[in-house]
Amino acid sequence: MTNFNDVVSQFRIEGTVESVSPIGNGLINETLRVKTVDANTPDYILQRINNAIFTDVDLLQHNIELVTDHIRHKLMEKGETDIERKCLRFVQAKDGKTYYKDVDNRYWRVSVFIPNAVTKEEVNPESAFCCGETFGNFQNMLVDLKEPLGETIPDFHNMELRLRQLREAVSADKAGRVASVKDMIAELESYADEMCLAERLYREGALPKRICHCDTKVNNMMFDKDGKVLCVIDLDTVMPSFIFSDYGDFLRTGANHVAEDSDNYDAVGLKEDVFCSFTEGYLSTAGNFLTPVEISHLPYAVALFPYMQCVRFLTDYINGDVYFKVKYPEHNLVRSRNQLLLYRDVRRHDQMMADFVKKTLKQ
Ligand code: GN1
Ligand code: MG
User: Fold this and answer.
1) pTM of the full predicted structure?
2) Do residues 315 and 188 share a domain?
3) Are 339 and 270 in contact (CB under 8 A)?
4) Extended beta strands in 205-299, E state
5) For residue 269, how far is its CA from the centre of ligand 1 (angstroms)?
6) Are 133 and 108 part of one and the same domain?
7) Structure confidence by residue, pLDDT tens digits, 100-122
8) What CATH number has the domain bearing residue 84?
9) 176: CA distance to ligand 1 center in Å?
10) Measured distance CA(163)–CA(155) in Å, rounded
């Protein structure tokens, strides 16, 4: 059993720890809330970094420090108030680093808990606009970051790599599950070339990489009590990527009628109203720096992310559930079925999405 108090005592926190308890529902890291006794000292978030996935913790924390410092600086320049609630702050360990490696080679970090804030699990058309605005603004703020960021998970959203990983999993068939998912694999393969378009455009020099969040879910944002966005959290995957990552991945979860792991398959599908308001919000802050190629491929991005996530969940199912946390043996299979159905429904909206993007930019 981990003694969390011992871990926390390695960091330069203020106050005395009262309790440490789990919070959040991420699939990768373990997250805990640290309450301090005195009301005048902040509470904290303690996280165990999953270093099987984020193998270079030093690079990871370096990226996060660069990003948070840059954003904090921008907010100060703009004369923003309440900056501590609008930008995450990581606490130094005794050696001055923003992480601590314990005797069992486990990595930990501590950030200041943002008080009087709430997270949301569901998106509605009203909040979708703010979400789009916020992620567009996040990319916009980082457009002029001078120092290059490393890739915390190399080729994280590279569709060609994700397909190679699926094919390798299929050949190895470690968990003996391939025979039961043959149809799905064949269907995914039939869309493979089309879905690797971004990588081809990149090689041709037609599509840039920019600093993106790469895990744009509504539960990775903090809101104040009035529903206004305070800040974006979960910065582990902030790295150079195609802007499709932030735009498409948000809609993958935010605009699906059901959760990504729901087996209510008949209900899976794209919420058009959320698509429309998220797109309007995103273009209101990102529209001025996006290139025509990026803009014309936004509908492709909406299809790409359910497709990619289906490939990733199915790969993990075939490998015997080694990456995503699962609650029952078929969990990854259910998730991949759900994402494939979402992909199909998104494709039925291709024309509508393209028309809507055009119309929004004309306004
Ligand atoms: C993982 O841990 P969480 O839920 O923030 C994953 C995302 C997936 C998501 C699917 C580093 O994110 O890419 O979209 O699960 N993060 C990583 O629910 O692989
Ligand atoms: Mg998360």
Assistant:
1) 0.93
2) yes
3) no
4) 210-212, 221-223, 229-232, 239-241
5) 20
6) no
7) 999 999 999 999 999 999 999 99
8) 3.30.200.20
9) 25
10) 12
Q: Tell me the per-residue pLDDT of 273-323, one tens digit each, with 9 for 90 and over.
A: 999 999 999 999 999 999 999 999 999 999 999 999 999 999 999 999 999
C-alpha to C-alpha distance for 127 and 311, rounded to whole angstroms? 29
The answer to whether residues 172 and 98 belong to one domain is no
Tell whether ligand 1 has an atom less than 6 A from the beta carbon of residue 50. Answer: no
Q: Whose CA is nearest to atom 13 of ligand 1?
A: 215
The pLDDT tens digits of the residues spanning 202-220 come to 999 999 999 999 999 999 9
Where in the sequence is the domain holding 21, given as residue range(s)? 4-112
43 C-beta closer than 6 A to ligand 1: no
**Residues whose CB falls within 8 Å of the CB of residue 271, separated by 6 or more in sequence, listed in order:** 255, 256, 257
Q: Which atom of ligand 1 is nearest to the CA of 50?
A: 11
8 A C-beta contact, residue 193 and residue 199: no
> β-strand 229-232 against 107-112: which pairing, if any?
unpaired
Please check whether residues 215 and 283 belong to one and the same domain. Answer: yes
